[in-house]
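Ops channel
N.P.: pipeline sanity check, posting one input/output pair.
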């Protein structure tokens, strides 16, 4: 019951932030987030704590936007405090400072040196909590035994495949399961390189067209992959012994795909 209540609060907070970012269809995006089947894994798994960390994450963005618009240091302090609470709830949110810079870029179309300085404490906290989490996984969970023994190239190729897997499940949430079959990535096959090359090509295309139609795509898709980065396979964790992907890992990032889809729908409707 508590997880359901937290998820409902998260949906409201998502609506408030998307509205402040002036994203079309913010209310629809929040509603879809509230009922999206992929989020069931995070809401039902009470000890997984995604639903607990999410409101603090959204408040970090909300307070930072208020600070950027009003230049009142109180909002900055609130944002930093909310980020600490988010990290204490779930260290998977370590990439949030990158999202803050992306939000600033979305609002002002540029990122200044002062923005980098203001986010420096956030990056420092992320670095500290990230190291603690890596140490804990290696020494207290895996006990020195790696969950994956594949090469760095295999992990890079797997990250591209995982990114598209999460996009697919966000758009078409069918055949969901708690544990998906574990992939075997063949680095000698050219087919294994396609997902990551396609991902890089999409980002390059969006960036080159960032002053026109590519801007919302770069912002939404960029934030989506950024928040997924800790679970794309570069850092070992115990769950990789069973599967390389999981529905609950995209609870923090699925908002971006939903918001992009809803904004696109509103754009088409208005025309």
């Amino acid at each position: 019951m508590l997880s359901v209540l937290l998820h409902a609060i998260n949906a409201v907070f998502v609506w408030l932030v998307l509205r402040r970012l002036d994203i079309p269809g913010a209310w629809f995006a929040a509603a879809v987030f509230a009922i999206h089947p992929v989020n069931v894994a995070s809401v039902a798994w009470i000890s997984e704590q995604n639903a607990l960390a999410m409101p603090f994450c959204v408040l970090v963005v909300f307070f930072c936007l208020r600070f950027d618009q009003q230049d009142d240091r109180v909002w900055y302090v609130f944002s930093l405090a909310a980020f600490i609470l988010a990290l204490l709830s779930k260290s998977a949110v370590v990439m949030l400072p990158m999202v803050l810079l992306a939000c600033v870029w979305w609002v002002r179309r540029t990122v200044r040196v002062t923005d980098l300085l203001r986010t420096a404490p956030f990056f420092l906290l992320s670095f500290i909590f990230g190291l603690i989490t890596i140490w804990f996984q290696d020494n207290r969970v895996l006990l020195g035994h790696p969950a994956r023994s594949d090469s760095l190239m295999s992990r890079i190729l797997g990250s591209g495949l995982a990114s598209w897997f999460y996009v697919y499940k966000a758009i078409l949430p069918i055949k969901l399961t708690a544990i998906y079959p574990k992939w075997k990535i063949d680095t000698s096959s050219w087919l294994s390189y396609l997902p990551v090359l396609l991902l890089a090509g999409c980002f390059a295309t969006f960036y080159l067209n960032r002053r026109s139609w590519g801007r919302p795509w770069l912002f939404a898709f960029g934030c989506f992959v950024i928040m997924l980065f800790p679970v794309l396979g570069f850092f070992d964790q115990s769950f990789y012994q069973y599967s390389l992907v999981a529905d609950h890992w995209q609870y923090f990032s699925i908002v971006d795909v939903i918001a992009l889809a809803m904004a696109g729908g509103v754009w088409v409707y208005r025309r």
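N.P.: looks fine end to end. The mean pLDDT is 92.
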